[in-house]
Amino acid sequence: MAQPPLPPPPRAQTSPGPVKVGTAPNRRLGSVRGVLVSSPPGRRARLSSPGTGRSSSEAREELRRRLLGLIEGNRVMIFSKSYCPHCTRVKELFSSLGVQCNILELDQVDDGANVQEMLSEITNQRTVPNIFVNKVHMGGCDRTFQAHQSGLLQKLLQEDSTYDYDLIVIGGGSGGLACAQEAAILGKKVMVLDFVVPSPQGTSWGLGGTCVNVGCVPKKLMHQAALLGQALNDSRKFGWEYGQQVKHNWETMTEAIQNHISSLNWGHKLSLREKSVDYVNSYGEFVEHHRIKATNRKGQETSYTAAKFVIATGERPRYLGIQGDKEYCITSDDLFSLPYCPGKTLVVGASYVALECAGVLTGLGLDVTVMVRSVLLRGFDQEMAERVGSYMEQHGVKFLRKFIPVMVQQLEKGSPGKLKVVAKSTEGPETIEGVYNTVLLAIGRDSCTRKMGLDKIGVKINKKTGKIPVNDVEQTNVPYVYAVGDILEGKLELTPVAIQAGKLLARRLFGGRLEKCDYINVPTTVFTPLEYGCCGLSEEKAIEVYKKENLEVYHTFFWPLEWTVAGRDNNTCYAKIICNKFDNYRVIGFHVLGPNAGEVTQGFAAAMKCGLTKQLLDDTIGIHPTCGEVFTTLEITKSSGLDITQKGCG
Amino acid sequence: MAVMAMAAALRGPGGRFRWRTQATAGGVRGSARGAAAAQLGKKVAVVDYVEPSPRGTRWGLGGTCVNVGCIPKKLIHQAALLGGMIRDAPHYGWDVAQPVLHDWRKMAEAVQNYVKSLNWGHRVQLQDRKVKYFNIKASFVNEHTICGVTKGGKETLLSAEHIVIATGGRPRYPTHIEGALEYGITSDDIFWLKESPGKTLVVGASYVALECAGFLTGLGLDTTVMMRSIPLRGFDQQMSSLVTAYMASQGTRFLKHCTPSRVQKLPDGQLQVTWEDLTSGKENMGTFSTVLWAIGRIPETRSLNLENAGINTNPNSQKILVDAQEATSVPHIYAIGDVAEGRPELTPTAIMAGKLLARRLYGQSLDVMDYSNVPTTVFTPLEYGCVGLSEEEAMARHGEEHVEVYHAYYKPLEFTVAERDASQCYIKMVCLRKPPQLVLGLHFLGPNAGEVTQGFALGIKCGASYEQVMRTVGIHPTCAEEVAKLRISKRSGLDPTVTGC
């Protein structure tokens, strides 16, 4: 076990004064701000801000800082009301434990109501008592007593300074790294544990998580390879001439992509080192409160302790649980570094991962079939999803709808080999068989939360999905344990969301900031052959929430200028917005199907953050000639039933 | 000389519709305005006539954008981009047999055919909407009447209650340079050339000049840009210099602080250009196959006999003076598009101005055109999209101490595997310094800049603050997400270059 680090030199005190907290040597002592119970902070704040027209935001900022100062500076901080029986119980509890606490009676200070409101912002808890133990938000009376019974309270009270780290982050993906680095920037001692359990096919990778290694990055690069294939076709129409035979070499592509990924892995390591974050390439498991066991590749175990933990272990592809799946099938974990061209491929699933992979492989010239159990892109706007699917179908992807595989059997070994797949209909007794070189499973992803000792410290997970429920400040039911990224229950599985959540979490925990991650109106893009970008609600969801009669949907086909000379399909690219008639025609859903959909969508997402309405769209000048400009000239409503096909010119 | 089209429509006495006339200039705005007015139930005519360029190039209905502007420009820009993609392809595993050549003739034919289909489309659209189209060259007889002359010399008189002038502009030729008019071409000709222009000298530093030089270089031609002073006057100058730096890295030659003095035709048909280097005062010479003038545009007002109707123009710019309602000094005569004084010379602004004008004229609405925060994109090899104020303008308007500029260099993901240089991929956001830091301008240099900029233009229209943009979650991996990650202010002095990944 690592030795506890030496205490850092005390930091300058901002307001020297008697310190009414702490017992033994405390390496955080330096950060404790002096607080006098006899001089209630409420009053002091008021005195220091003699109402001379200071803006309310400044006053709020000062109040917030003052409260965080109290929380940071006291071993036990209780926000209470003098007449509240629950508060009295809590005070008696601490008194019986012989623990000195700092108490702020909200009913006895002038700005008690403001304090209460600010507390509810900081903790998401409005009621008193509101208790912090060693900077950890304990909760109210009941949770404090529960913690007392479970031993957590005693643990928290002991913890003072003896932890190895201020923060241990488990999982070195987008969210985990963002959180770790931000915490380190804020001066905290941080460790990241990252360990990639090899896929059943033996694929493993470096630091950076799914996005960098087996997600967004290689996916977008392969998508680009496929788009370049299309560009090569187009280029002849634009006057370029070269030999007729154009072949694609899988190995060249994957090698280039893997080289780029290696540089990113390296970059992440470097960046952690620069910020003095300790990176340990080991598998982390909780063994007791505040203590984790890290097991490296050789099986050596080390244990570390920390005041706070962030779980950011992400997800891994799901297997079907049928005969032959783990032995012979690959997943997106394997595809991007596959050392040989996959050949004729069956993609199982209709998630965005499935459709993106199928699109890429088809674009590179392979024979691809997608086996779909029910709908495409569940959770996305279904009209858009069907359009994505039909474009793929028109461009060579075969779809087998309403079938599920029941068995995968190897016919021949090789790179690639030959596999026989037996599938059965979801609607009847029919079964079909097919022979493929590769079977790629993309039926969903499972959270990596079940084998990390969460039960040992009582972190609740959703038994069915393995996901971790958190409150709106990413805190689990165990107050010092937080979670970000794909493992969160009911949140979005997107890299930039995880990054944002991780960063903001670190700033709230260590930087005295309040801003919460906003999971509303998050834009995203599916990099299918025809890209699909969206922000806000799907049409189905909008109808469910607002009722059809309260909505107006504007839509149109458009023909990108570059597609005209290239002779590509007219009436394929499609734009749609969903407006709430009774909120000034506010845009609540934005959907675009076309080239560079991601680039187009981003700015509109920013505009939606600022309250985009149909009128503002109409008032904005288009940039000519682009695809994005189509949103400034939307005139036809779905309800009108008018024809939206394009004739002639724009 | 001029393209001229006019649209006008009128309501006769007693509420019956009858031809009285109208007049004036067309192009995209003429059509938009004409079509819009016609949709509102008015009797409308569009008068359009393309005076051939000095090289004899002429084209059909639709104006500059469709025939000799945005449309052919973007298509040839795309051809050049495809050349870049062919070079990228091997990095992504595609085996492309060498040599790779470009056939100008084939491209030009494809582009020209597409433009002709648009001309046809415009004609059909006018017909569908019952707008009468006259292919005649118009000039004012009096304030309600114009006289149109056909190619054959036949005259027609048309009268209208309201007249909209939308005659646009045409490229300017230098007046005191020997051989300029005889041997030079302009953007009116380049898109209609049947044969490759070969080694080309582009004179000028306007966006037209840089776009043309960019695509010619991209198509593999030896291209030189000669500029007297600064590139992209009126645009943010830091961005402009990055635009030219990228072009130089792609092989476009630049002759800065030089002005041509003479163009002579050599016996072999090549053009010998003599120029003065303003820095050294020395005279230099070079030989080119083509000389393209892109030194500015002049409004098409001189042949309109505006004085017959009493319409005032700015004597310097020759543009027509208009008010916020787009009305000229004669209340029932309006001017929109590039011909109107003080308006951005952009297709979508002209279209919107035309539509709004028609709606105002015929009582559908009172909305006037808002000419602020108009986004635009320069389709140079590395595209430059912008909306709002340049850094210089923001400083001048608000004072340096009140402006905060956030900026970053970035590397598009697609550039990595293709081993492309991203030294000029750069974004900056100009904001007020005082929280919540209202966004004054956004400048984006990189692939698909137009697509990226459009949505943010909406954001600025909605009064976006720096904080709001930062709270927008990025779409990964795109270039546009970099806008939502701008953390480094110029004032901080921190390094805005890419680190790590």
Task: Characterise the protein shown here.
The complex is a heterodimer of chains A (650) and B (501). Chain A is of the alpha/beta class. The longest helix of chain A is centred in the middle third of the chain and has 25 residues, at 250-274. Mean pLDDT of chain A is 89; it is low at 1-53. Chain B has 501 residues and is α/β, with parallel strands linked by helices. Helix content of chain B is 29%, strand content 23%. Chain B is built from 14 helices and 27 strands. The relative contact order of chain B is 0.12. Residues 1-26 of chain B have low confidence and may be disordered.
Question: Mind describing the biggest β-sheet of chain A?
Answer: 7 strands, mixed
Number of helices of chain A: 20
Name the shape of chain B in a single word: globular
Helicity range of chain B: 25-40%
Enzyme class (chain B): oxidoreductase
EC number (chain B): 1.8.1.9
Family (chain B): Belongs to the class-I pyridine nucleotide-disulfide oxidoreductase family.
Protein name (chain B): thioredoxin-disulfide reductase (NADPH)
Keywords summarizing the entry:
heterodimer, A: 650 residues, alpha/beta, 7-stranded mixed β-sheet, 28 strands, disordered N terminus, B: 501 residues, 5-stranded parallel β-sheet, 14 helices, thioredoxin-disulfide reductase (NADPH) (chain A), transport (chain A)
Question: Strands, helices and their partners?
Answer:
The complex is a heterodimer of chains A (650) and B (501).
Chain A: H1 41-48, H2 56-73, E1 76-80, H3 85-96, E2 102-105, H4 112-123, E3 130-133, E4 136-139, H5 141-150, H6 152-158, E5 165-170, H7 174-185, E6 190-193, H8 209-214, H9 216-237, E7 240-241, E8 247-248, H10 250-274, E9 278-280, E10 283-288, E11 291-295, E12 301-311, E13 315-317, H11 325-328, E14 330-331, H12 332-335, E15 345-348, H13 352-363, E16 368-372, H14 382-394, E17 398-401, E18 403-412, E19 418-425, E20 431-436, E21 438-441, E22 445-447, H15 454-457, E23 481-483, H16 495-510, E24 524-526, E25 532-536, H17 539-546, E26 551-558, H18 561-566, E27 573-580, E28 586-593, H19 597-609, H20 614-619
Parallel strand pairs in A: 1-2, 5-6, 5-12, 6-9, 12-23, 14-21, 15-16, 15-21, 16-17
Antiparallel strand pairs in A: 1-3, 3-4, 10-11, 11-12, 13-22, 18-19, 19-20, 24-25, 25-28, 26-27, 27-28
Chain B: E1 3-4, E2 6-9, H1 27-39, E3 44-47, E4 49-50, H2 63-68, H3 70-88, E5 94-95, E6 101-102, H4 104-128, E7 131-134, E8 137-142, E9 145-149, E10 155-159, E11 163-165, E12 169-171, H5 180-183, E13 185-186, H6 187-190, E14 200-203, H7 207-218, E15 223-227, H8 237-249, E16 253-256, E17 258-265, E18 271-277, E19 283-288, E20 290-293, E21 297-299, H9 306-309, E22 333-335, H10 347-361, E23 376-378, E24 384-388, H11 391-398, E25 403-409, H12 413-417, E26 426-432, E27 439-445, H13 449-461, H14 466-471
Parallel strand pairs in B: 3-7, 11-22, 13-20, 14-15, 14-20, 15-16
Antiparallel strand pairs in B: 1-4, 2-3, 2-11, 8-9, 9-10, 12-21, 17-18, 18-19, 23-24, 24-27, 25-26, 26-27
Keywords (chain A): Disulfide bond, Electron transport, FAD, Flavoprotein, NADP, Oxidoreductase, Redox-active center, Selenocysteine, Transport
Function (chain A): Has a glutathione-disulfide oxidoreductase activity in the presence of NADPH and glutathione reductase. Reduces low molecular weight disulfides and proteins.
Domain Glutaredoxin (chain A): 76-137
